[in-house]
């Protein structure tokens, strides 16, 4: 048996830490829940924190949020697809947009549903994922702001999501300048300047963000307390809100190297044996009851630092326990801290039980 555990107190303390730093700086923020893959148990935990705004990239997840708490403002954080327009207007109060055609469809659907749908216009600022080009922004805005049943909630950008471009102070100043240009050109006020995701938290802590940037979307920092500039844990936050526990189902002393003619394994990898390898060497190996169907080994961090992950097949993972001083037996649980992608795979697996401490 393998299961994922969320530690409620650590989640609450991480949320409180972030909420304080944002409120002290008059910044609005929403929790990004796409990591949770729509898990109702964990969504309830997020809602119980007192959040007023939830962001997700799956409309089915926002539908669950609205069912659990209709008053929470829901935000769809990628450009809507044509096939999802009706559901996005129904379940997302706000959506991120980059195409005139899409916003026109949202306008028609919002009118049909007798709603006002809010949008954030995303601007391309170097990461080369979604976004309107800066030189086209004023023309784009002009075509949008008169559409019926559409309210422009703000402008925003995504950085560090595709090409790894960081949200530096210069980038956020540039975003602030776009706000000034639009407000001067059209004599309006833009409520949100959405400066990015968890990667921007270190700038906020250093008070290096321009005052005009007043909105952020936070997921990874909440769940992992991670400074994405340094890779370290932010002082005062927890990096282990989630932990994985997997049960040992076999322990045997085995050769370190495979025996026989070698071909590709199930993952498409081929094992290579160096000519200088000591083929007589053995190690004490344990097999855990989870595999590539559930996770990717490179994103798991054994809490016992003397355990080494060997590899995994579809349903089982092999670890080397030769160097540990702890006594493990059949049925012992091995615990792992997780990187973001490690948690994402596990939360998306129906075979991993989800629990709360």
TrEMBL record:
Classification via InterPro entries: Ala_racemase (IPR000821), Ala_racemase_N (IPR001608), PLP-binding_barrel (IPR029066)
CDD domains given in the database record: PLPDE_III_AR_like_1
Tagged with keyword Isomerase: yes
Claim: Isomerase is one of the keywords in the record: yes
Record Pfam families: Ala_racemase_N
Chain ranges of the Alanine racemase N-terminal domain: 50-225
Listed GO CC annotations: cytosol
Cofactor section: pyridoxal 5'-phosphate
GO molecular function, one term: alanine racemase activity
Key words of the record: Isomerase, Pyridoxal phosphate
Protein name in the entry: Alanine/ornithine racemase family PLP-dependent enzyme
Organism: Flavobacterium tibetense
